[in-house]
């Protein structure tokens, strides 16, 4: 704000520093020029007025003089051309006494012979006219003319019109008339036709003697170039130089006019300051007006600048708000100039910015939501993959266990096979024993005598048989147990594979391979179970056969015991025994066949178990791989989660930023 | 900023220059088309030797300068002069060359001219009735004539501190009379020579009057050392009077003005001592030139001898004494 104010002041100050000096200069020039022009014009006017005044005055003096001269000349002419008698001339002179008020004494005539005539009314004392100034003046011309001013006998300044009277006589006579210079003084002093102007009449033939002047102390005094009054010394200088053009002397405008027919010069002068007083006044008024107009201009400039700058400062404020992110401003400038245009543009800009930020804001909100979503999704995915990993591990463990179980089955099957083999061997041994029994029984029949011994041996052999058969029974029970265990394991495996299938299905594409394996495992487990069932069925058959064999052996033993006791009976029953043995033998053979079958099955089981074990190994490897992959997935989903978290953070930051704009 | 202002000023200057030069060229075109300006010459009479000389020269100059000139003689009749001046415009004249019968009537003629420029010759109007390139005077400075006379006498009398002089003046009130006489007096006043004007009277340009006045002077029994005459005619009369009174014009220098044939002859004859040539030929040339220029609406300021105020063409006098008088006979 401080800065803004400073700026505003700067514009105003700048404008003022440009405008004010120019205006002042222009006004000064205007005042100067108009003053100078009016000075010139006024001086010109004053000069022409002074000149017309002096012309008028000199014309007046000249016409006054000419009138008198005409008058005198007519009298002279009358005398010259009239009768030359003294009385008549005297009468003429008398008649002109007081005829003209400017020459009240009338005319007089002086001769070189000392004669003198004048109006008889004057009654002057007689004198020698040739000694008089007027006489000397008159001698220089025939045509009457005024000579220089001189002092009359009575000491008064007088001007005489004189001329030679051409009366045809040999005596030179001068006719003259004295004229009071009072009338000239009146014309000079009062006939000035210009205010504040003064005139003075100077006789240049008599060292610039002043004839008429308002300053009576100067009358009849000569003015010299060394006069203490600069005006008069200047006039004297101009007169001596013969420069009679209108000129400026000592702050006066001075005009000169020669009075024709005389050596008189009329000088009129007027003080320049008097003439230029209106100009000074005008200049004063103009300067005042100038100052006023400068002040008005300053005020106007300040006002206009304020008016013009006000919207700018509003705009500046708005721009500042905008730079602070506030776009809630409403630029409303109703001036129709460039600033208004600027305001309008800013208004448009703010509008478009507002729209833009608005859309950015909503977009960023959306983004934020989406990033939040993806964050949670990635989180759940992470969790899922983690769970999957764990499940995988469990599966792995299960598969491990399965493998172990399968291995166990395999070893059991091997053991079973071994046992079966042993059993077969035993059966074969039993068979062989049976055959030997048959042989012996045949021998018994033959060797009845060795019956008792043989009986013992039979008894022994029978108990051995019973033991072997019991062993077989035990072994088959064991097999039954193992088979049921296998069955259980198979069931469990099947269950696990089912589980695995489900999990694999849940894992989607990644678990598809696994699902295949899991179903394979399931199949294998089913196969294992059915085989185990077969085995158990077979074992049950074996068991029954063994029970039969045992029962037979028991029956044989009883029979042998009975035979032992009933040797006699034995011989009779010997055949029966033999038959029984024969029967036993065939059972035995059946049994051996069954055992062989069992052996076959057991071998088969062992092979399958081994295959199973191999498959389990494969499964294990696969599931290890899967665990690894699941771990990778977990890691990736962790990364995804991290990224989506970061994204969420970024979108939050963006949202924060966008929220900083007020719209 | 400065350069912009400068450019503006420059363009303004160029524009105004073009404008002004267009105007000027237009003006000059008009001038050229109006060649052969019609000019009216109004003379009082040609009785006087100088006026005859002047009017002859004006006619000659008009034909040589291609000016269509018509001359009218009016005598001393002011009304006739005014009438001629008044009708000049309607007659199609572009300028008037006028010899006033009375110098005081200049204002009347200015008004009567109806805006036609007037070139005054021989009779000099009052300065206030002249104006720049409109009403002008072509002539010689009367004062110069008197100055030349005074200077000649001053030298002839070997720089005297005082001497007796006679002045025979022309017509009373005539510009030549006043100017020439006052110039003589002024010259000596400025030289601090105490001149005793033993006789000074109007002889109205005529030798008879001069002679008569001199005889009257002789009656006063005063001596004279030099005689100044406002023209040659009076000077010749003065010389005759001197001779008649037994005085030697070689000892008493008699000076005239105009360098008329008679005057020059008198000088050649050893009677008159000095005269001043009023250069009628150059005055005529200038008058016709100015009439032509003013008739075309142009200024005379560039004309030779023109004064700064554009009111006068001062054709200089030429001093004539025994050394050169024969040239002008």
Give a verbal description of the structure.
The complex is a heterodimer of chains A (663) and B (329). Chain A is an alpha+beta fold and 663 residues long. Chain A has 2 domains: 2-275, 2-Layer Sandwich (Beta-Lactamase), CATH 3.30.450.20; 388-657, Helix Hairpins, CATH 1.10.287. Helix content of chain A is 73%, strand content 9%. Chain A is built from 11 helices and 11 strands. In chain A, strands 1, 2, 3, 4, 5 and 6 form a 6-stranded antiparallel beta sheet that branches. A 5-stranded antiparallel beta sheet of chain A has the order 8-7-11-10-9. The longest helix of chain A is centred in the middle third of the chain and has 109 residues, at 338-446. Chain A is rod-shaped and about 260 Å long. Mean pLDDT of chain A is 80; it is low at 1-6. With 329 residues, chain B is an alpha/beta fold. Chain B has 2 domains: 37-140 and 279-316, Response regulator (Rossmann fold); 143-277, Response regulator (Rossmann fold, 3-Layer(aba) Sandwich). Helix content of chain B is 45%, strand content 18%. Chain B has helices at residues 2-33, 49-65, 78-88, 106-112, 142-156, 175-190, 207-219, 232-244, 261-268, 280-295, and strands spanning 38-43, 68-73, 95-98, 118-121, 135-139, 162-169, 194-202, 226-229, 254-255, 274-277, 312-314, 318-321. In chain B, the strands form 3 sheets. Chain B has a 6-stranded parallel beta sheet, sandwiched between helices. The termini of chain B are far apart. Classes of the chains: A alpha+beta (663), B alpha/beta (329). Chains A and B meet through helix 1 of A and helix 6, strand 7 and helix 7 of B.
Give a topology summary.
The complex is a heterodimer of chains A (663) and B (329).
Chain A: H1 2-81, H2 86-95, E1 107-111, E2 116-117, H3 133-138, E3 145-146, E4 150-151, E5 157-165, E6 173-180, H4 182-190, E7 197-203, E8 209-213, H5 230-241, E9 247-249, E10 252-258, E11 264-271, H6 272-275, H7 277-323, H8 338-446, H9 451-507, H10 512-565, H11 567-660
Antiparallel strand pairs in A: 1-2, 1-6, 3-5, 4-5, 5-6, 7-8, 7-11, 9-10, 10-11
Helix pairs in contact in A: 1-7, 7-8, 8-9, 8-11, 9-10, 10-11
Chain B: H1 2-33, E1 38-43, H2 49-65, E2 68-73, H3 78-88, E3 95-98, H4 106-112, E4 118-121, E5 135-139, H5 142-156, E6 162-169, H6 175-190, E7 194-202, H7 207-219, E8 226-229, H8 232-244, E9 254-255, H9 261-268, E10 274-277, H10 280-295, E11 312-314, E12 318-321
Parallel strand pairs in B: 1-2, 1-3, 3-4, 4-5, 5-11, 6-7, 6-8, 8-9
Antiparallel strand pairs in B: 10-12
């Amino acid at each position: 704000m401080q800065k803004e104010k400073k700026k505003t002041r700067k514009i105003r100050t700048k404008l003022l520093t440009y405008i004010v000096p120019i205006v002042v200069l222009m006004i000064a020039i205007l005042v100067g020029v108009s003053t100078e022009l009016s000075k010139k014009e006024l001086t010109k006017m004053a000069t022409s007025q002074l000149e017309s005044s002096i012309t008028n005055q000199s014309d007046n003096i000249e016409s006054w003089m000419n009138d008198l001269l005409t008058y005198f000349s007519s009298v002279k002419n009358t005398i010259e051309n009239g009768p030359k008698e003294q009385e008549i001339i005297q009468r003429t002179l008398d008649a002109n006494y007081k005829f003209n008020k400017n020459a009240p004494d009338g005319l007089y005539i002086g001769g070189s012979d000392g004669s003198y005539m004048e109006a008889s009314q004057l009654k002057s004392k007689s004198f020698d006219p040739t000694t008089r100034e007027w006489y000397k003046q008159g001698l220089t011309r025939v045509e009457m003319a005024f000579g220089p001013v001189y002092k009359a006998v009575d000491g008064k300044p007088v001007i005489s019109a004189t001329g030679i009277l051409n009366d045809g006589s040999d005596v030179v006579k001068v006719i003259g008339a004295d004229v009071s210079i009072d009338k000239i003084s009146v014309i000079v002093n009062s006939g000035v036709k210009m205010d504040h102007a003064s005139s003075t009449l100077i006789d240049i033939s008599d060292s610039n003697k002043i004839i008429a002047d308002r300053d009576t102390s100067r009358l009849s005094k000569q003015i010299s170039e060394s006069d203490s009054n600069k005006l008069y010394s200047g006039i004297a200088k101009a007169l001596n130089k013969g420069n009679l053009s209108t000129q400026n002397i000592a702050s006066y405008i001075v005009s000169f006019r020669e009075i024709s027919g005389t050596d008189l010069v009329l000088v009129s002068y007027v003080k320049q300051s008097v003439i230029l007083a209106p100009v000074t006044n005008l200049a004063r008024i103009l300067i005042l007006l100038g100052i006023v107009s400068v002040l008005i201009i300053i005020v106007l400039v300040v006002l206009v600048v304020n008016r013009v700058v006000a919207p700018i400062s509003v705009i500046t404020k708005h721009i500042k708000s905008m730079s602070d992110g506030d776009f809630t401003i409403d630029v409303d400038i109703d001036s129709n100039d460039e600033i208004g245009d600027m305001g309008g543009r800013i208004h448009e800009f703010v509008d478009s910015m507002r729209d833009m930020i608005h859309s950015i804001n909503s977009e960023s909100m959306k983004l934020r939501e989406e990033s939040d979503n993806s964050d949670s999704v990635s989180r759940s995915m992470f969790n899922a993959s983690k769970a999957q990993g764990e499940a995988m591990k469990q599966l792995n463990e299960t598969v491990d266990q399965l493998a172990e179980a399968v291995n166990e089955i395999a070893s059991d099957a091997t053991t079973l096979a071994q046992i079966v083999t042993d059993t077969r061997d035993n059966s074969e041994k039993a068979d062989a024993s049976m055959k030997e029994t048959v042989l012996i029984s045949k021998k018994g029949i033959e060797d009845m005598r060795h019956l008792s011994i043989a009986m013992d041996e039979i008894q022994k052999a029978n108990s051995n048989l019973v033991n072997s058969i019991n062993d077989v029974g035990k072994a088959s029970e064991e097999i039954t147990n193992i088979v049921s265990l296998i069955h259980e394991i198979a069931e469990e495996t099947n269950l696990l594979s089912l589980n695995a299938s489900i999990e694999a299905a849940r894992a989607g594409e990644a678990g598809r391979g696994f699902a295949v394996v899991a179903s394979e495992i399931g199949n294998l487990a089913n196969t294992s179970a059915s085989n185990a069932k077969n085995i158990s069925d077979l074992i049950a058959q074996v068991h029954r056969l063994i029970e039969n064999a045992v029962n037979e052996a028991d029956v044989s033993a009883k029979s042998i015991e009975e035979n032992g006791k009933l040797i006699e009976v034995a011989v009779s029953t010997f055949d029966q025994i033999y038959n029984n043995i024969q029967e036993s033998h065939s059972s035995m053979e059946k049994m051996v066949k069954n055992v062989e079958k069992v052996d076959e099955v057991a071998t088969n089981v062992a092979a399958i178990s081994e295959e199973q074990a191999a498959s389990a190994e494969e499964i294990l490897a696969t599931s290890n791989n899967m665990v690894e992959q699941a771990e990778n997935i977990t890691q990736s989903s962790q990364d995804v989660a991290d990224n989506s978290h970061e994204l969420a953070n970024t979108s939050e930051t963006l949202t924060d930023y966008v929220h900083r704009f007020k719209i | 900023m400065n350069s912009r202002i400068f450019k503006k000023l420059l363009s303004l200057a160029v524009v105004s220059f073009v404008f002004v030069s267009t105007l000027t060229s237009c003006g000059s075109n008009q001038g050229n088309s109006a060649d052969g300006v019609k000019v009216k010459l109004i003379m009082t009479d040609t009785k006087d030797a100088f006026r005859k000389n002047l009017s002859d020269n004006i006619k000659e100059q008009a034909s040589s300068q291609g000016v269509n000139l018509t001359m009218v003689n009016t005598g001393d009749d002011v009304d006739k002069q005014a009438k001629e001046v008044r009708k000049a415009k309607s007659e199609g004249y572009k300028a008037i060359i006028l010899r006033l019968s009375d110098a005081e009537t200049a204002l009347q003629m200015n008004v009567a001219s109806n805006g036609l420029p007037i070139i005054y010759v021989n009779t000099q109007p009052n300065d206030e009735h002249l104006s720049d390139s409109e009403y002008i005077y072509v002539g010689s400075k009367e004062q110069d004539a008197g100055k030349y006379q005074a200077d000649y006498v001053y030298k002839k009398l070997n720089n005297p501190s005082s001497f007796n002089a006679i002045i025979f003046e022309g017509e009373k009130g005539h510009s030549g009379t006043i100017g020439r006489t006052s110039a003589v007096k002024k010259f000596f006043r400025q030289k601090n020579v105490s001149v005793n004007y033993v006789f000074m009277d109007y002889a109205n340009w005529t030798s008879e009057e001069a002679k008569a006045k001199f005889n009257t002077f002789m009656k006063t029994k005063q001596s004279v050392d030099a005689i100044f005459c406002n023209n040659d005619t009076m000077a010749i009369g003065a010389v005759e009077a001197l001779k008649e009174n037994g005085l030697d014009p070689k000892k008493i220098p008699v000076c005239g003005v105009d360098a008329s044939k008679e005057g020059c002859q008198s000088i050649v004859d050893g009677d008159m001592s000095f005269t001043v040539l009023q250069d009628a030929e150059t005055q005529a040339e200038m008058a016709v030139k100015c009439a032509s220029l003013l008739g075309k609406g142009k200024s005379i300021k560039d004309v030779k001898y023109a004064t700064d105020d554009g009111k006068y063409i001062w054709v200089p006098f030429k001093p004539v004494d025994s050394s050169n008088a024969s040239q002008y006979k």
